[in-house]
What does this fold into?
Amino acid sequence: QVQLQQWGAGLLKPSEPLSLTCAVYGGSFQDYYWSWIRQPPGKGLEWIGEINHSGTTNYSPSLKSRVTLSVDTSKNQFSLKLTSVTAADTAVYYCARTNYASFGPNDYWGQGILVTVSS
Amino acid sequence: IQMTQSPSSLSASVGDRVTITCRASQNIYSYLNWYQQKPGKAPNLLIYAASNFHSGVPSRFSGSGSGTDFTLTITSLQPEDFATYYCQQTYSTPLTFGGGTKVEVK
It folds into this structure.
């Protein structure tokens, strides 16, 4: 049974960095990409980026200048850092597994963390 | 790649047949997935690669299409199916989602 558990600060001030981590339990860590997806309150889903076990990344062009994904294979964890946050970055942030062996769906998701940016 | 879902919302009754469409701005072959999301919860994968069931998904859900036009069908709507549904293309990065279709009680 694959489980993703995520954590990080839920309340930030403008210009502070956002930092979230996701731990993967069960299944293989090496055989998948690991993604971050966010959802502003009342809105749709936005893909942030993905990383694999060797550190290969793909980023959303709209966030690329502010996003860094990293991976710790010794702990089966991956992390998101987003710099210089504004109110527009207020959203529920999800981590998810991307299964490119099956045409790339996000087949397992973390529970989500609401990150609020407010002064 | 832009993903356009329609309708953005619909009202239906238990037992109804419901169809949601998703159109891609370019050919994505079969790299199309469908998710169901309930309030306060993470999305759940229903269908991957346009027409394949994710584990545990009831058979009343089905997906079809290829290229640019795709459909999610619920053959007999159940009370637990009232939710928002999203399509997603995974043909190329940046991966993109449709805007969502909210299925509400009529």
Observations:
- The longest strand of chain B covers residues 18-24.
- Chain B has a mean pLDDT of 97.
